[in-house]
UniProtKB/TrEMBL annotation:
It comes from Ceratodon purpureus (Fire moss). Transmembrane segments: none annotated. The chain holds residues 45 to 327 of 362 of the full protein. The lineage of its organism: Eukaryota, Viridiplantae, Streptophyta, Embryophyta, Bryophyta. It comes from the Eukaryota. GO terms for biological process: pantothenate biosynthetic process. It is an enzyme of class 2 (transferase). Keywords: Pantothenate biosynthesis, Transferase. Belongs to the PanB family. This is 3-methyl-2-oxobutanoate hydroxymethyltransferase. It catalyses: (6R)-5,10-methylene-5,6,7,8-tetrahydrofolate + 3-methyl-2-oxobutanoate + H2O = 2-dehydropantoate + (6S)-5,6,7,8-tetrahydrofolate. GO terms for molecular function: 3-methyl-2-oxobutanoate hydroxymethyltransferase activity; magnesium ion binding.
């Protein structure tokens, strides 16, 4: 596959092959995700937390997103590129949603967009985006942009009302034309039931093994942030496949020590020689 498209995702879904998705925020992470053969690369608004150091995703703007999308698009040629619509960029009206989604493709270089929530006006926005010719991914369960009304980053779908709402929203987003839906932080049996009820793939995060695919945040997966502040908010469901935070800290400390002790730069890292005798004569 030169470039993953919705048709490739559908083929995987129909043959029960799990769809792989990871976030990326800049050129190097885009390259890494591409080279790993990941199907979908999400430029997530989680960028506000893992890159910009905010406590929530709420401060992220459309302009922030576009800058990150452009950098990722330069690095990732093969995965389907999905740009996350940030808080405040699609809630007012379907027109606003289509305008923001259009910018994600025209300016950001994305192939598709993702938006949170499955209530009435969100479903209309999803339909409008899809009718404008832009592939749209839904996102239900824990929707971090709704932290103000959810009262924190809390799992959803843990009682009957909440579980039925997750299912309801997922079905509504499917009929609005979404090509896939992220299920975040819901109990595994609920995610399994929603996945079984839909005819489009679900992508789980903290939603157990029975979704049609899985997504993790780049920095979480790589164990990038291990300093005390971040450890508090590293989600329980995120497996760390590496401890890059430690690798980076060790490398930086070693560099500091070698500069302090004048072990760096050694002759190997001092490549330039004077190439005429006149200059040498001056020294
Ligand atoms: O912003 C993000 O990283 C996301 C994923 C966790 C799905 O929305
Ligand atoms: Na997001």
């Amino acid at each position: 596959w030169k470039r993953v498209t919705l048709r490739h995702l559908e083929a995987k879904y129909l043959t029960n092959q799990p769809i792989t998705m990871v976030t990326a925020y800049d050129y190097p992470s885009g390259v890494h995700v591409d080279r790993a053969g990941i199907d979908i690369c999400l430029v997530g608004d989680s960028v506000g937390m893992v890159v910009h150091g905010h406590d929530t995703t709420l401060p992220v703007t459309m302009d922030d997103m576009l800058l990150h999308c452009k950098a990722v698009a330069r690095g990732a040629d093969r995965p389907l590129l999905v740009g996350d619509l940030p808080f405040g960029s699609y809630e007012q009206s379907s027109q606003q949603a289509v305008a923001s989604a259009t910018r994600m493709l025209k300016e950001g270089g994305m192939d598709a967009v993702k938006m949170e929530g499955g209530g009435g006006s969100r479903v209309q926005a999803a339909r409008a985006i899809s009718e404008a010719g832009i592939a749209v991914m839904g996102h239900v369960g824990l929707t971090p942009q709704a932290i103000s009304v959810l009262g924190g980053f809390r799992p959803q779908g843990r009682n009957l009302d909440s579980a039925l709402q997750v299912l309801d929203h997922a079905l509504a987003l499917q009929s609005a034309g979404c090509f896939s839906i992220v299920l975040e932080c819901v109990p595994s049996p609920i995610a399994a039931a929603v996945t079984a009820a839909l005819k489009i793939p679900t992508i789980g995060i903290g939603a157990g093994p029975e979704c049609s695919g899985q997504v993790l945040v780049y920095h979480d997966l790589l164990g990038m942030m291990q300093h005390p502040h971040y450890v508090k908010v590293t989600p329980k469901f995120s497996k760390q496949y590496a401890s890059l935070g430690n690798v980076i800290q060790d490398a930086l400390s070693q560099y500091r020590e070698e500069v302090s002790s004048k072990a760096f730069p050694s002759p190997v890292h001092t490549p330039y020689r004077i190439d005429d005798e006149q200059t040498s004569a001056f020294l």
